């Protein structure tokens, strides 16, 4: 059976809460001790499906065209 690639596009409103060991780590935004994400609203605008083999064939055609030029 062929593999399918599903691409979903949309918008999300969210709040991320992170806890850091100290102020310097918080300013850098690296290595939080805890992290929590709360999605307020999720709006899906578009969903597309493609066969994986079709994508592979398209890329191989593009590569062949680029090699010729």
Describe the structure concisely for a colleague:
With 69 residues, the chain is an alpha+beta fold.
Describe this entry's structure for a reader.
This protein has 69 residues and is an alpha+beta fold. It has one domain (4-68). Helix content is 33%, strand content 49%. Strands 1-2 form a two-stranded antiparallel sheet. The longest helix is centred in the C-terminal third of the chain and has 17 residues, at 52-68. The mean pLDDT is 86.
Strand order of the largest sheet: 1-2
Query: Low-confidence parts lasting 5 or more residues at pLDDT below 50?
Result: none
Strand elements, count: 2
In angstroms, what separates the terminal alpha carbons? Answer: 36 Å
List keywords for this structure.
single chain, 69 residues, alpha+beta, two-stranded antiparallel ribbon, 33% helix, elongated
Give the helices and strands, then pairings.
Blueprint: E1 4-19, H1 23-28, E2 34-51, H2 52-68
Antiparallel strand pairs: 1-2
């Amino acid at each position: 059976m062929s593999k399918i690639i599903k691409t979903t596009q949309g918008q999300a409103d969210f709040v991320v809460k992170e806890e850091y060991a100290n102020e310097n780590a918080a300013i850098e935004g690296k290595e939080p001790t805890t992290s929590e994400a709360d999605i307020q609203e999720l709006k899906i605008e578009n969903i597309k499906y493609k066969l994986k083999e079709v994508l592979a064939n398209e890329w191989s055609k593009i590569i062949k065209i680029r090699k010729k030029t």
